[in-house]
Batch of 3 targets.
Target 1
Amino acid sequence: TTATTQSTAENSRESDFIREIVAEDMRRGTYAGRVVTRFPPEPNGFLHIGHAKSICLNFGLAQDFGGVCNLRFDDTNPETEDMRYVQSIQEDIRWLGFDWGPRLYFASDYYEQLYAYGVQLIRDGHAYVDSLSDAEIRAYRGTVTEAGRPSPYRARTVAENLDLFARMRAGEFADGTHVLRAKIDMAAANMKMRDPLLYRIRHQHHFRTGDDWCIYPMYDFAHPLSDAIEGVTHSICTLEFENNREIYDWLLEKTQTPPRPHQYEFARLNLDYTVMSKRKLLQLVREGHVQGWDDPRMPTLAGMRRRGVTPESIRTLCERVGVAKTNSRVELSLFEHILRDDLNFRAPRLMCVLRPLKVVLTNYPVGETENLEGDLWPRDLAHVKDGETRTIPFGRELYIEQSDFMEEPPADFYRLALGREVRLRHGYVIRCDAVVKDPQTGAVVELHCTYDAETGRGGSQNRRRVRGTIHWVPAAASIPVEVRLYDRLFVAPNPDDVEEGKTFLDGLNPDSLVVLSQARLEPAAREFPADTRFQFERQGYFWADPVDSQPETRVYNRIIDLRDSWGKAQDSKAQSENGSRPQAQKPSQKPAAQDQNPQAAADDSSGDRRSKLDVREDARAADPQLAQKYTYYIETLGLAPEDADVLTGDIGLAEYFEAALATHNAPQSVANWVTNEVLREIKGGTVADGAWSPVYLGKLVALVDEGVITANLGKDLLQELWTSDEDPVAVVEVRGLRQIQDAGALEPVVAAVLAENPDKVAAYQGGRTGLLGFFVGQVMRKTNGQANAPMVQELVKSQLER
Ligand code: ATP
Ligand code: MG
């Protein structure tokens, strides 16, 4: 069985140094084929995403090698620990998708055994009771360059030590008067080995053992012995415990017979724009900087769960980050990328207007309505999602987004303006004829428009080209909702890196939460289960807040936006600070109604977009060649005006696009890749700063268009190869990245996914056919996105309907 469990490990996850150690122990039979790991949280706070890495590693190892993983609460500090944390930790681990079965343990269950080990160490001459004060103990310990001095109490006899230790336990002494110490070496190079403390006196009530004990074991004593008591084989902890390993080994050598557990250290997970220390998280909660441990801005698992983050995306992050031996920070954008990828598959699309502006269609009959139909899934997912649609009531009054209207817009504002036309998503083309203003404030409060009945689905003018499409909701039928826009809790990537005299609290982002209480949502939202994650078109991914949302008073959390608006806003801020382009807007360009909250403007990309539009427009005005290309791209190549605009803001980008087109003649497709992926790669720079060859880009797009690789894989490759000079065709061949189009190869993967999710299979068979996408997503993940999705869908369906 060793061989088979090993090969599962190799198939399902990439190997790492810890998996290699475990595999080697399996080969050698060190623990007779047993693998026992543990996750040992201290119940003094909620779990955070860093803990998730340790959970995925410990439980994942047990799964991969056919072993078990214990959940052990390391409850040896009565001052800070609490049953409430014990409960939240269990809930969070289950939510992440792991199960300890009956193996729930507490270090406090072992207090009697641990005490007996203390007595044994004293008897064997390996421990003594010291009566120096804390300060003296510190002074006697020496420094890194200087050996320590032995305590005058080090020479106590075994009998004296046994007596004092028993009286410590009996409660005869006050806190701090005596400690039990290991007798090792006061001159050891590793300071931790200079007679480490094993027990201290604390007259404190413990949440589990009550007042039974007034001496409590130290981590370095309790942890290794708890591992040994539970028969743990591989005790995995984070790098800061590297120096504690010597004590771990010393203690277990003195008390255990082999085989005994061994400790291995791996790098902590640190994520940008957040803090991970429980002490700091507790401070944020206590001082009211957030609304609780489960505040959706917190990096806690409870906060992320409430926000709407999926456990799958956290597990994927942990796998992608891998297990290493050096500490590093993980870019938040990696996590966001994984999260968007996951949500994209599971989130049906609806429309929600965050800051409504009323529109009256003056030529639509009063009192009449009709039902429009809208796709729930975008075209590239339609094959997975069966082309499901929802109905959207349409009538005389609607709401649109305030920022989708401008009174005096620049030439390339493609949304609504007086006298201009725009298409309503899934609906008609409308033209704005009049603007109604508040007589007091002058703010635009209503638009009078006319609609063109021939531009609806099936209408003779349905295909008429209009420059922009905007989202909207019907006025009467839409649901009033509160929307909470969450942003990063800290402004800097590393909030712990602060100037003299400041603390991490100075780096809190004042705009991390914006509440919009007037938002309006499409009525179709009522037809979905309460825990559905939606994409609100053009806005981001949202779900109903599990705590505050009620069927009648709905509250939606933004899980994540669609694009990295933060990065863009920072870029343009930096630009304006450098003076390269003044950010001041012409007064006439202000959106219809100004939001008082500065974040409101930052979260809507229009402010930023407009200034970039200006830059490109100026470039075309100055360079007739660019102006000519602009017209050519639209009229001859048939590109959407928005894409033509982006491509012709700078001659370098236009030439890059054309060179790629020469390799792969599919204008809109290449344009999409350039305007989305390439621009993301060059991050505000230009293609001149060392870009990947446009020939390679053309080849890459061709690979995707021809179905040799999936679009997602294509994007990953572009990111990876961008700074290289590698040919994507060669990379795809050498690494065997072609899509798996072979049903025989995919069938077992599909079968495995179904076998792992019996509850979801049952739900599907009970009518929740929307789960099809979930199964397909899982298969795609297992094949690293290499499976041919339409084929996977067919296979899933046929296996489910068998
Ligand atoms: P903090 O330092 O935030 O207070 P902790 O390490 O004291 O956390 P524990 O409850 O003792 O919290 O942690 C339980 C387990 O989780 C330990 O094995 C610890 O090494 C691991 N762990 C804690 N933080 C991280 C992290 N950022 N990345 C990976 N593992 C972590
Ligand atoms: Mg700890």
Note: The radius of gyration is 31 Å.
Target 2
Amino acid sequence: MIQRPRGTRDFLPDEMEFRRNIEMKMREAARRWGYREVCTPTFETQELYTIRSGEGIINEMYTFEDKGGRALALRPEGTAAVLRMYVNEAKVLAKPLRWCYLSDCYRYERPQKGRYRQFWQFGAELIGADTAEGDAEIILLADDILRAAGVTYDLHVGHLSPMRAILRDIPEERKRVIMALLDKKNMEGLEETLSSWHLEDLECSLKDLLEATTTDEVFAITGPIPEQERIEAVVNVLKTEDIQFRQNYGIVRGLDYYTGMVFEGFAENLGAENQIIGGGAYRLAHLFGGDDVGSCGFGIGFDRVMVSLGDLPVPENTVIAVLYTPEAREYAFSLSRQFRDAGFRTEMNLLARGISAQMKHAAKTARYAVLAGEREMADGTVTLRNMQAGNQRECTVREAIDGVSNGWE
Ligand code: HAM
């Protein structure tokens, strides 16, 4: 037996239906905010991701050389490609641009619950609104989409500037090590590393910053910083909009392109991989040959949304099974068409089996059976049977369609 590759999944129809249903709710929420869907290629030149995505992503990338010797990579995330597309195709459009996407992404990670090698991200990018209002809109949009999906989660909102202010005198290389430990929330490692560098003072300020939950506490640690007003403005909008969140200035994000506001969300039922969303303000377009446009966005782990929602609901489909004797074959096709035209999922018998075998099959798969034999065909009628109640009656096609529409017992 050939197995699917590690870290990938198959989705059977019930699960696909559930995924599409949730996807639709998320798209609908995005639409109400004016975010329109875009699509970029599944693979891009490797360079797109090596420029600024950060080591984490580069080490996990699925890379390959095509027959023309080009170095390509499967998309590990959505933002870089969307900004590349903006530079290639949409620089002249009136800004801000509000775009969203649902894309499959690929990362060579160790698979576990909620962590896959092929996964889907529902992302949004707001391009060209480098303002507190833009930052706030992106967080409110993310919250609206996650609530539309039915997810319960904890939202953490922060900003990179306070951390950068504390680390301003630390050499770049050490800064990267500290940020990486913070991103992995490896506090023990952080303590050990800072002690080994004799940076005990820094350890104290960092600890205080990680514990700070108000802007007053933060600016008491950092002193005045230029971003203070913008940080306060975003926090104030979120408070007046009455969404549940906590301030967390220890968020550093794993990707290297963030420049300001950052946020993450953590959901229930997920175990260790509980980060359901990550995002923030960033600059990327100038690296791809465009203008230095400020942007802001997020990626929701769509598969984590599905894990968090839990068990599959029982699909509530009204299925019509069309059963017939061989003489009524063409009549059965016509009946099936009429039921489909009325909007019902209609499945005609396709196998050469007797009526009782057809009925047995319908008992497993359908809510109603529509039976046609020679007599029904001659009279232009059908025998309609409610498979659960076991009731049946002969009626015109129109009456049968009306009966099914009204849930006839
Ligand atoms: P990210 O935090 O790397 O950010 O990914 C976003 C979300 O994708 C994560 O919070 C997580 O829910 C989900 N995710 C990541 N890796 C996996 C995996 N292996 N399996 C399942 N789900 C996963 C980004 O990718 C940025 N592009 C977000 C962004 C958009 N920032 C600005 N705009």
Note: The chain has two domains: 13-309, 320-405.
Target 3
Amino acid sequence: MAESFRAILVSRDENKKQSVDITQLTDADLMDGDVTIAVDATTVNYKDGLAITGKSPVVRHWPMVPGVDLAGTVIECDSGAFKPGDKVLLNGWGVGEVHWGAFAGKARLNSDWLIPLPDGLTAQQAMGIGTAGYTAMLSVMALERHGLNSKSGPVVVTGANGGVGSVAVSILAKLGWEVIASTGRTSEAEFLKGLGASEIIDRAELSEPGRPLGKERWIAGVDSVGSHTLANLLAQTSYGGAIAACGLAQGFDLPATVMPFILRGVSLLGIDSVNAPKQLRLEAWKRITTDLDLEKLEALTTTIGFDDIIPTAHDIIDGKIRGRVIVDMAG
Ligand code: NDP
């Protein structure tokens, strides 16, 4: 009999009512692909929370094994790109949305989607970073491409206690930026200062409708929140600055005016991690290994086992998760 492995399966009935089950699968159940991987570690991102709770239409193929990030070991690879035993990393590419993903003992994928596990990182550390951390790095790189650096002025990070936010705070602080961290959990100020934030502001200051232009408070920003928060960030950005927009934790709307763009030359930089080209991914992960302090990473990660994935997915949507979650598949 074929060896089976655990998996989370998100299904829909004929009335489109969603259910989530832990089930057993075999290799024969997996979707097509040219590489089969044993999943060593994964993580729970906000998007995985959306998939499991069904809060937003992240899943577009039914049934679905969710999980957008994995670190694993190659079992077999038909393309020749990898050999058995190679350690690999996957972020995005629609995995966990349209192609069965990481919340299973094994995954069968397209080898083009994979990059080698970066030197110096374990599978667990790579998942501590995950799509959230790699998106934080993409955001920092976008600000740098715009010509901004730690000498330019302060940077604001929203959703600072979340996955993207906490990694962004750590990276920016290590790069020497003065980091203003915006959070709804001001009780976590010491945690954020430990990651390197210089100033903590209450997200309530930014989350309500604001004026088209405000006092210039920062030259750059990493925003994982969207909506009024992003509009207020733009309105309070200094002349020539830029905000990297990567998330929608408050909302996907952007109730802003053009005033910051046309009167202060402010730029809005869009960040997508899912379909980012391979070269950019390789660069982002290389930068992560030099620009993220692994001790800080340890401070912002919590490790859980496979059975904790579903409750954690609900917690991340409820805003109860601080920093990043590592799922150790051996756990
Ligand atoms: P987390 O849930 O870990 O963090 C989100 C944080 O946003 C929360 O911790 C909270 O921070 C803040 N927040 C939550 N709700 C609200 C609200 N109503 N108003 C204001 N702030 C709020 O998620 P991630 O960090 O993993 O992801 C953040 C966002 O980035 C998500 O929207 C996700 O979909 C998006 N994303 C986009 C990617 C891309 O490719 N563009 C890749 C990865 C993520 P605090 O408690 O500090 O206030």
Note: Residues 45-47, 131-132, 135, 159-165, 183-185, 203, 207, 224-225, 229, 246-250, 271-274, 316, 319, 321 surround NDP (CB under 6 Å).
